[in-house]
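Incident review: delayed structure delivery

Summary: a single-chain prediction request sat in the queue longer than the usual turnaround. Root cause was a stuck worker, restarted by the on-call engineer. No data loss occurred. The affected request and its eventual output are reproduced below so the record is complete for anyone auditing the incident later.

Affected input:
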Amino acid sequence: LVHLLDLLPQPALLACRARFFVALDVELEGETTLDAGEDLEVVLAHPEEVDRMIEDGRIHNAMTVMAVKLAQEAGHLRGKK
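Output delivered after worker restart:
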């Protein structure tokens, strides 16, 4: 697990911190167990496909796009910089 960066997403409105990490050499081994109120979808994709998913709008959450771009810039994912 590699720490990429900490950011304050909306410091004028919220007192929260976003911490960005990339997990390397992982495999999906079972079903995801979510806490009450969590809404999460696990999608397996090659790094090159993730760029296309951002470009065509399938990935449109700003925090997710930021995490992908940070991981790419740090050299942890192949794909466009």
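Verification: Strands lie at 2-7, 18-22.
Action items: add queue-age alerting; document worker restart procedure.
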